[in-house]
Amino acid sequence: AKGWDRFAKPFILSINVSHLEFRNSDFLEFLLPIAEECNRLGIRILLETAGEREEFEYDENVIKRLRENNIMVALEAFGGGYASIDIIQRLKVDMVKLNRELVITFLEHNLKRTIAIALVMIAHAADAKVCAEGVSSREHLAVLAEAGCDYAQGTYFLEPMNAEDFGKAIQPICNP
Q1: Which residues contact residue 101 at a Cβ distance below 8 angstroms, ignoring those fewer than 6 apart?
Q2: How buried is residue 87: exposed, middle or buried, by Cβ count under 10 Å (0-12/13-18/19+)?
Q3: Cα angle 18-19-20, degrees, rounded to a multiple of 5
Q4: What is the number of other CB atoms lying within 10 angstroms of the CB of residue 69?
Q5: Confidence at residue 81, expressed as pLDDT on a 0 to 100 scale
Q6: What is the spatial distance between Cα 95 and Cα 65, in angstroms, rounded to a whole number?
Q7: Residue 132 CA to chain centroid, in angstroms?
Q8: Rounded distance between C-alpha atoms, residue 30 and residue 28, angstroms
Q9: What does DSSP assign to residue 42?
Q10: For 38, how many CA atoms within 13 A lie in the half-sphere containing its CB?
Q11: 32-48 pLDDT, tens digit each
C-alpha cells in the first residue's frame, strides 16, 4: 500500500484470491493488518475470486470479518464457468466481473450481448456493482454503459503493465 497513497481516494486495490482462501482463517489473519494499513491510507481492498467450483464454499465468519474490516468481495468470470447466481446470493458479493470472453465477443453475437445485458441486471438486483473485463473498444464501452455497467477494465483504457509504469500512467489523472 505504501506509495499508492498519493493517488486519488478512494483507491481500490484488487487482489485475486482462490476460493480456498475464503475458508482459511490463516489467510484472514495475514490480510487484516494489511487491510488496516490500507484503510488508514484511504485504499479499499477488493478480493476477487472466480468461484472455481460448483460447490463454492466459504466460512461465513470469514466473510463477516472481511466486511467488518472494509474489505470488498468480487466474483470474477460471471457469465462463464462456475460463477453462478447462487454464489452471488450466498456470498453477497459487492461486485461481479463479467466474463472477459463474453465481453470480447458480444459485439459479433447478439445472444452474447443479450446475456451480458441480462447479467448486469441480475447483478444489480442482487445489490452488486458490475465490472466488465476485456473492454477493448469504444463500442464495447457504449453497449456496457447503456446496460448500466458500473465499471469497465481492459486494453481500451491501458495495456497491462507493472506497478511502477501504472503509477506513472495514472499520475496525471490522479494529480492533475
Answers
A1: 80, 134
A2: buried
A3: 85
A4: 17
A5: 62
A6: 18
A7: 9
A8: 5
A9: T
A10: 20
A11: 999 998 888 888 899 98
- Neighbouring CB atoms inside 10 A of 130's CB total 24
The mean pLDDT value for 49-66 works out to: 68
77: left (phi over 0), alpha (psi -120 to 50) or beta: left
Best CA proximity match to 40, nearest among 74, 73, 11, 72: 11
Cis peptide before 10 (omega within 30 of 0): yes
- Quick one: CA dihedral 105, 15, 10, 161, positive or negative? negative
Helix (H, G, I), strand (E, B) or coil at 151: strand
DSSP, res 113: H
Mean pLDDT, the chain, rounded, equals: 82
Q: What is the pLDDT of residues 106-155, one digit of tens each?
A: 889 999 899 999 999 999 999 999 999 999 999 999 999 999 999 999 99
**Between residues 64 and 153, the one the model is more confident about:** 153
Collapsing DSSP states into helix, strand and coil, what is residue 6? helix
Contact 57, 18 (CB under 8 A): no
Residue 47, C-alpha cell as written in the block: 478480493
